[in-house]
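Fold this complex.
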Amino acid sequence: MDDIAHLSALDRADALEAELRERICLLDYLPGQRLSETELAEEFGISRTPLRKVLAKLEGAGLVASRHGVGTFVTELADEELDQIYRLRLELAQLAAKLDPVPPAPETLSRFRRLAERGRALRPDPDSPRPLARLIYDFIQVQAELSANRPLMDFATHLYSQTARLWVHSLYASDLDLGEEIAIFAREVEDILQALETGDLEAAALIHRAHVSMSWRRLRARRLTRS
Amino acid sequence: MDDIAHLSALDRADALEAELRERICLLDYLPGQRLSETELAEEFGISRTPLRKVLAKLEGAGLVASRHGVGTFVTELADEELDQIYRLRLELAQLAAKLDPVPPAPETLSRFRRLAERGRALRPDPDSPRPLARLIYDFIQVQAELSANRPLMDFATHLYSQTARLWVHSLYASDLDLGEEIAIFAREVEDILQALETGDLEAAALIHRAHVSMSWRRLRARRLTRS
DNA sequence: CCGGCTTCTGTTGTGCACAACATGATCCGA
DNA sequence: TCGGATCATGTTGTGCACAACAGAAGCCGG
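Structure:
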C-alpha cells in the first residue's frame, strides 16, 4: 500500500478508506472474512478510534458489517440481491450515455487504451485473482468518467464493484474457464474503446450492457450446475 | 423524538441515525447549518464517541460534512448537482415499476390512503415547513414498498430525500404559492393511489414521473426569476 | 490609522482505558 | 456420561482527556 503516514491528518482518513475499499474489491479480504480492528489499527500505525470511523463509513456503504462482541465482517450478498443488482445495472448501463454524457477526453481515451493493452497481456493465474480484479477495478473507475452525472456514476460504480468482487470470487471458487472469462473481458474493453474512438457513447454503453447481460447469464448458469 | 435510552445498545445507534436523518430531511436542521457534536451528545445523553460514529455514516451518505477545527455542517447542493439528481430521478421513476414490481399489499394501499387524507387535510403554514416535509418524507418511505429491488429503492429514496429537503427549503425561502404546491402534491398522492387501486403500477410510476418533471420545472423557473 | 502577529477560544480528530457483549472451554453435579 | 452453569477470552462499543486545527479577537509596532 501507499504510505499514508506523511499525509495531512484530514486526508489520511480518506486514503485509509480508499485502501480498505481496494482490499475488499480486490479480494485481499474475501466475502465473509473477519477484519480485526486491533490488527488494522496496528498495521496503519494509528489507534482504533480513527480506524473505526472509516469502518463506520464502509458499513454505511454496505461493504462491511459489525457485530458487537463478535467482529467486523466483509459482507456477502445473497443470490437474490445479486440478481436485483444485475437487473439494475442493465438499466443503468444505458443511462450513462443518456444523462449528462461527456465526449471522452484524450486523457480518458488513452486510459482505455492502456486498459485494453493490459487486458490483452493478462494471463490466467489460477492462484491469485488480484490481477484480474485489479483490471476490472481500474476499468470501473475510468468508465465513471463517461458521464458528468456524479450521483449516477457513483451509484453505478458502487454496484459494479459489488458484483465484480463477488463475480471474481465465485469465478475462482469454481471450475469455470478462467482464461475464457479473461478473454471475454479483454474483448469488451477493446470493443468499448473502438466505440469511444468514433465518439459513439451510446454504442459503448450498449456494448457494456450486453456484456453485463452475458456475464450475469454465465453466473446464473454456473449457479444452477452447482446446486 | 422517541426515547432511545431504553433500547439495547446495538439498536441505539441505528435509532440515533434515523433520528438525525429525519431532522435533516424535515428541515429541523437547515442546509448549511452547523451541528455541534458536544450539544448533540448531551441531548442524547451519550458521549461524543458513538455520536461521531453516526455522523461518520451520515457523512458517507452525503447528508453532513465535517471540517477539522471548524464544525460539522448539513450539506447544501449546488444547482448543477440538483439538476443532475432530477434528471436521474426522471429515469429511475420508471424503473421502479419495471424492476421487481410487487403488487401493492392491502397494508400498503391503506398507507397510501392515509397519506392522501393527510394531503387533503394539510393547510399551508408559512411558519413551519415541518408538516409538509413530514408528509413528503412519509410518502417517500411508503413508495419504497412498490418494488422489491432494494438497491434501487434505497437509492431512489436517498435521491428523493435530497431533492425534497432542498425543494421544501427553497419553497419556504421564496414567495412561491405554498398552498398551490401543497395542493399539487396532494393531487399527486391521490392520482397515484387511484392507479394503485386498479393494480396499475406502471401508471403510478408515470404519474410520479410527471410530477417529478413538473416540480423540477417550477424549481428552475423560480431559480431564474431570482437571479 | 493600519497591517501583521499573537493569543485565545471553540471545534473536530486521536489515543487509551474500560464496559458490554458473544462465544467457546471448563468445571461440577446428578 | 451427560447437561447446564460458570468462567475465560477476545471482540466491538463507550467515555474521557488531550492533541491538532481554524478562525476571530486583540495587541503591538510602524
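The radius of gyration of chain B is 18 Å.
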